[in-house]
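**Backbone geometry record:**
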Amino acid sequence: MLELLRVGLYENGFTVMTAADGETGLQIAMTHELDLIVLDIGLPKLDGCQLMQALREHARWTPVLMLTARDREDDIIRGFDLGADDYLTKPFSFAELLARMQSITRARREVEHGTIEAGGVEIDLIRHKVTRERDNIDLTRLEFLFLVCLMRGAGLCVSRKILLESVWGQDRTVGPSALDVLVNSLRAKIDAPYTRKLIGTVRGSGYVFKGDFTAAHGPIQ
C-alpha cells in the first residue's frame, strides 16, 4: 500500500517522503517542513498515535490525516484527541484520499491567508469578495454562505442538511426547496457564463463543487 500511494501521489503532483515504520516517520516529520502527514495507525516500532503524540509534544503542528481499520473506533477517538485533522478507514478509494488531502491543505491555506481557492474560483473571506478567472462576482449573503460551505468540501458531496444549516442555521421555517432556489441562482452567476461547470448535483444526497478531486462516496453528513 505504501508504494502504491507513493506512486499515485507523485503522479498527481505531490512531493512524497515515505516511512515504513513509526520511528523513521517521526524522524522525517521532526526534520522536514511538511504540508501534510498521511499516517497509518498500525505502524511497527512506533504506532501512529504515539508518533502523533510525540509531534504535538514538540509543538509540531503539521496537519495529519489518519488511516485506520474500520472497526478501530478507539483509535479514531484517540487520534482526534491527540490532534489529528481527519481520518479514513480502510479500505478506501484513492480518489477519496486525494479529496481529503485537498480538503485539509485547503483549510490550512484558508487559515493562513483568509481565502478559499478551487476550480479557478477564489473567495476572500475577509472582504467577502468572490472572483472566477479574475471576474468579480456579486453574491447575496446567502449565496456567499452556500458557496463557502460547498468550496470547503470541494471534491466531496456536501449533504443538503449541512448546507441548510450552514446557510440558515437552525431556522425551522426554511424548507428544502429554498436550497434548490439558492443553488439555481448561484449557478447562474458562477457557472452559466463559463464553459466549465463547477456545481454538481448528487441526486438524493446533496451537491459537490467540482474544483478539485471528485470522490465516489457518500455525502458529508
